[in-house]
């Protein structure tokens, strides 16, 4: 996998974790099960650290996409971008090495990740 | 939603070898048969989740979980350690049974929470069943999960 894509995926997963930890409904449910989500500071510092590993050009696009959608990477399933539900050009979608390059959706601009099926 | 419907024998490991929290997570992730890169990403997210607060809920149970982009669907994997692992559980005791839950980030978050709740409920009942420590076949575990959900 493209190393920058790997970082973007880690960042997206962390953003979801932060959102979950801050959502009172989710937090209440998880607390009831005994699953604590208290150490938000550590999560924020991991996020900052990972952002620092992005190339500057990618970081500015990451910030733009994140601000617009609240997410950065869209999964691609069966050739469809799950950020905007538009079909990805076949030439890109059919490539076996598609996750080894950093692709963005031509329609919504989100970074793309082809999910293992 | 029933756990027995999303669990499969190949996602059960009755003999985890790991002696550390990270090692257990690695063995559980391996059960999902993802690509090497996807496994690496998922493991990193699960470790980050543990930093937020341990998923060791006590009574010998841990429920590591996260929503991750690398997951195509809601998946559950189960591991059993004979010696137990220090998972920094709430009760300070070792964890022996591990229930991994991974969900895609898209979709209804309430479904994920429902799944977590059901797994926690099943995990608690499974841990109290004395037969579990003697199970040799993954099918026995599958049958118990189905029995508890019937």
Can you walk me through this structure?
The complex is a heterodimer of chains A (117) and B (150). By secondary structure, chain A is mainly α. Chain A has a single domain (3-114), classed as Helix Hairpins. Chain A has helices at 3-22, 24-33, 40-51, 56-69, 90-93, and strands spanning 73-77, 80-81, 111-114. Chain A has a 3-stranded mixed beta sheet. In chain A, strand 1 and strand 2 form a beta hairpin. In chain B, 43% of the residues are buried. Chain B has one domain: Mannitol-specific EII, Chain A, CATH 3.40.930.10. Chain B starts with a helix and ends with a helix. The model of chain B has no long low-confidence stretch (mean pLDDT 90). With 150 residues, chain B is α/β, with parallel strands linked by helices. Chain A binds chain B through residues 1, 6, 9-10, 12-14, 16-17, 20-21, 26, 29-30, 33-40, 42-43, 46, 71, 73, 75, 77, 82, 99, 113, 115-117, and chain B through 34-35, 37-38, 40-41, 44-45, 48-49, 51-55, 57-58, 63, 65-72, 90, 104-106, 109, 113, 116-117, 120.
Shape of chain A: globular
Name the strands of the widest sheet of chain A in spatial order.
Answer: 2-1-3
Content of β-strand of chain B: 15-25%
CATH topology grouping of chain B: Mannitol-specific EII, Chain A
Radius of gyration of chain A: 16 Å
Q: Tally the beta strands of chain A.
A: 3
Give the termini distance of chain A in whole angstroms: 16 Å
Number of domains of chain A: 1
> How many helical stretches of chain B?
5
CATH architecture of chain A: Orthogonal Bundle
Largest sheet of chain A: 3 strands, mixed
At the first level of CATH, the class of chain B is Alpha Beta
The proportion of strand residues of chain A reads 5-15%
Shape of chain B: globular
CATH class of chain A: Mainly Alpha
What is the CATH H-level superfamily of chain B? Mannitol-specific EII, Chain A
Q: Poorly predicted ranges of chain B (pLDDT <50, ≥5 residues)? A: none
Helix/strand-derived class of chain A? mainly alpha
- Helix segment count of chain A? 5
Oligomer: heterodimer
Proportion in helices of chain B = 40-55%
């Amino acid at each position: 996998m493209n190393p920058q894509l790997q970082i973007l995926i880690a960042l997206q997963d962390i953003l979801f974790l932060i959102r979950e930890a801050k959502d009172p409904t989710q937090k209440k449910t998880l607390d009831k099960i005994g699953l604590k989500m208290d150490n938000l500071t550590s999560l924020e510092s991991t996020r900052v650290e990972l952002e620092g590993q992005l190339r500057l050009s990618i970081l500015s696009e990451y910030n733009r996409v994140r601000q617009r959608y609240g997410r950065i990477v869209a999964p691609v399933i069966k050739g469809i971008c799950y950020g905007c539900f538009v079909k990805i050009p076949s030439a890109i979608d059919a490539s076996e090495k598609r996750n080894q390059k950093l692709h963005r959706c031509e329609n919504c601009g989100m970074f793309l990740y082809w999910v293992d099926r | 939603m029933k756990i027995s419907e999303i669990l499969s024998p190949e996602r059960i490991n009755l003999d985890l070898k790991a002696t550390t929290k990270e090692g257990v997570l690695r063995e559980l992730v391996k059960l999902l048969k993802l690509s090497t890169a996807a496994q690496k990403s998922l493991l990193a997210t699960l470790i980050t989740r543990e930093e937020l607060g341990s998923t060791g809920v006590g009574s010998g149970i841990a429920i590591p979980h996260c929503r991750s982009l690398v997951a195509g669907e809601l998946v559950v994997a189960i591991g059993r350690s004979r010696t137990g692992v220090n998972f920094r559980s709430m009760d300070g005791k070792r964890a022996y049974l591990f229930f991994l839950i991974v969900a895609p980030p898209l979709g209804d978050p309430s479904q994920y929470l429902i799944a977590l709740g059901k797994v926690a409920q099943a995990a608690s009942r499974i841990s109290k069943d004395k037969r579990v420590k003697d199970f040799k076949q993954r099918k026995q575990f599958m049958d118990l999960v189905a029995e508890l959900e019937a």
